[in-house]
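Task card 7
Instruction: Convert sequence to structure tokens.
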Amino acid sequence: MAINRVKTGWQVDVKPEGRMGKRVRKTFRTQAEAKRFEAKIRSQAASGEDYAPKRRDSRSLMDLAQTWHNLHGATLKDGKSRLNKLRFIADYMGNPRASLIRPIHVAEYRQKRLAEGLTANTVNHDIGYFRAVFNLLIRMEEWHGENPFASIQFIRLPERELSYLTIEQINTLFHHLDQSRNHHVKMMATLCLATGARWGEAQYLRAELVRNGQVTYVDTKNGRARSLPIPDMLYQQLKAHGAPMGRLFPQDAYQAFTNALKASDPPLSA
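Output:
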């Protein structure tokens, strides 16, 4: 028979081109998988395609992470930090051979990390990172197996209710920012309030990108630059704040900002 029951599962043992053709043997966990493989091999042989199974891929999970980085990750703004995160995950899982990873192993990783106190959002990101690795390598024909991370559903997160500061709260916050020893924090907060910028966008704003009555953010979340007009008074304050070239706010001010939030009564949250 072409398919036989063996100790480790169901073994396909066929010569699609007859007794003188190449012999193909491969073992599967289930009979259904074995039948699908046999049908595929016979179909490929009938159409003249190369039906010989690919050589076993011995690359580890960390190897795939490095290949992903070489092909794509290096072009990302956070590519290096993403690679380090992937390496950590691979090491945590024991850096197994990628072809041996099954969805159950990913689920076990998730449970262990949650038990250690990681948030569901962080674990979702971990799984999403490696899901993207396999997806990219499959698209580029650098991986011919399944994506073991694809069948693990993300943990559903409760929607975060957004809140906004009242005028009174803004005045209270700026009162505490005035008292801060960090001389950048108030200007950065003013800029964020005037333009709707994220803190990181304002933090890394370069002085030469403040010109013609507007600011241009290039280090944005989606990677696209955007220019926004600002009031003339703020424009003059920014031009006078720092050096004419380089980072306008060379000193990190986020901790000073959160300290001002906490000092407010009642305390505000970032």
